[in-house]
Amino acid sequence: MTTITYLPGAGSLDGTKIIKNGVGTQTPTETDAAREQYKKQREQFLQVLLTQLENQNPLDPVDPSEFTGQLAQYSSLEQLLNLNENFESLKEAMEVNSNASAFSYIGNSALLNTNMSAAQDGKATWNYTIDGDAKEAVITIRNSNNQKVYELTSNGLSKGTYKLDFDTAEALRDIAPGEVLTLSVQAKDAAGNSIKTSTTTTVRIDGIETDNGETYLRAGDLIFSFADIEKITSTISTTLNNGGAGNDTTAETDTGDSGDEPVDTEEAA
Q1: Mean pLDDT, the chain, integer
Q2: Residue 40: exposed, middle, or buried by beta-carbon count in 10 A (0-12, 13-18, 19+)?
Q3: Cα separation of 210 and 225, whole Å?
């Protein structure tokens, strides 16, 4: 069932960050383009040099110092290009190492600074903050096609942070596993004035992807970067010595504001 929980003392995050899922294309690097240009110019230079040597006057030969200087410049340019390629190889190796370390995030929960979430295990979870006492707050959830799948009107909400656990079984339309859902909260005070709200979501990381050398994490169909993560929560299974009983503990890595334990849970109709 869908529930709303008030979180006393929870901090708010500034704004929301819209995450776009795009398909990247591979483009040549600047070093590749420079090397191609270098090859063309060098071939042209050598052709001109050979033509002049073949057609020079034996009694008045061409001064070789000019050609020697240009050859030295091309040699220096080639060395710089090789050095740049070495740096790019080092960068690629670092990216591979970064991708490998990203696998450790799979299975953990991530708190994201966005109003977008993903349907996972039949639910989606958001925290939303209301910056003032609200006479009325209209909570709307839309699917990836911008169709309304859930709406709830809450009355008499105090200023603070609330947790929304949305049960996809209560949706007005079918929601596919992993589908991206977007939450909007429109709150008004007793005078009918709008109250500022902000939203975060908690998702389970279930994959990683790369695009143009950048590493992204995936939760269902939702793609996000490391910069979007406010907090990582991992569940570690340990075994006790007394009879081998299992014990689950939770370890948290906090990169932003966090809230207290939820209280005053109310069931949303």
Answers
A1: 74
A2: exposed
A3: 10
Q: Is the pLDDT of residue 25 over 50?
A: no
Nearest to residue 194, comparing CAs of 125, 135, 258? 135
Q: Which residue has the higher pLDDT, 173 or 246?
A: 173
Cβ atoms within 10 A of the Cβ of 190, count?
10
| Angle CA 139–142–147, to nearest 5 | 130
Q: What six digits make up the tokens of 214?
A: 């950048």
- Strand, helix or coil at 249? strand
Confidence grade of residue 263 (pLDDT, cut at 50, 70, 90)? very low
Q: Which residue has the tokens 């190889």?
A: 89
**Which of 96, 118, 109 has the alpha carbon at shortest distance from 223?**
118
- Secondary structure in 3-state letters for 90-137: HHHHHHHHHHHHHHHHCCCEEEECCCEEECECCEEEEEEEECCCEEEE
**Residue 75 Cα to chain centre, angstroms:** 42
- The token pair at 111 is 């708190």
Average pLDDT on 36-40 reads 73
pLDDT digits over 178-217, tens only?
A: 999 999 999 999 999 999 999 999 999 998 887 776 788 8
Place of tokens 């008045």: 60
Give the span between the Cα atoms of 100 and 115, in whole angstroms.
Answer: 29
Tokens 């908690």 — which residue? Answer: 202
Buried-state track 163-181, b at ≥16 Cβ within 10 A, e below 16: bbbbebeebeeebeeebbb
Which structure tokens are listed for 85? 């390629």
Cα dihedral 49, 52, 54, 55 in deg (nearest 10): 170
